[in-house]
Design brief:
Shape: globular
Helix content: over 70%
Strand content: under 5%
Mean pLDDT: 89
Number of strands: 0
Number of helices: 8
Order of helices and strands: HHHHHHHH
Radius of gyration: 20 Å
Length: 162
């Protein structure tokens, strides 16, 4: 139901924008389609990889490695994987849902997503080029440590609610 409301709202606003300024709306739609074309190859590749991994790894293995009972080791492993992986945020959230449905723990998934979005091992050299090595290293270390705080908070909150 929410999807229908959001799509309807988008269609209404697009029509309203088109009525107000046809050229700007056409330009915006072209830019949007161009962005979509750039994102889709990454999205499909990651979805395919996740699909293959989830088909090869059974839910028991996921539960053992990054399930609720994996504790700090599972959070740490998720944080390391998230730190070295590059993935668009919207794909990370979709993947997180798949992992949760396959038996991953909330704290472990929270650590994975927070490091995916905040820590950049693969982009370190590029970031260091503009911000300096010291600042980049400090930012990544603090973000990595912060992921444990996020994981602990999410783990506590969801253990109370579930």
């Amino acid at each position: 139901m929410t999807s229908y409301i959001l799509y309807g709202l988008c269609a209404f606003l697009l029509i309203l924008s088109f009525i107000k300024d046809k050229e700007k709306t056409k330009t915006a739609v072209k830019k949007g389609l161009s962005s979509w074309e750039n994102i889709m190859p990454q999205f499909f590749t990651i979805v395919i990889v996740i699909g293959i991994v989830l088909s090869l790894v059974d839910t028991d293995t996921i539960s053992k490695v990054i399930g609720s009972n994996s504790g700090f080791l599972g959070v740490f492993l998720s944080s390391v994987v998230g730190s070295i992986t590059i993935m668009p945020t919207f794909v990370a959230f979709s993947m997180s849902n798949s992992l949760l449905q396959s038996g991953a723990g909330y704290a472990q998934v929270a650590a994975l997503v927070s490091t995916l979005t905040m820590v950049g091992v693969m982009t370190f050299t590029l970031e260091a080029k503009y911000m300096g090595t010291k600042v980049t290293l400090l930012r990544n270390i603090l973000a990595f440590l912060f992921s444990f705080i996020v994981a602990a908070f999410i783990g506590v909150v969801f253990s109370i609610w579930t």
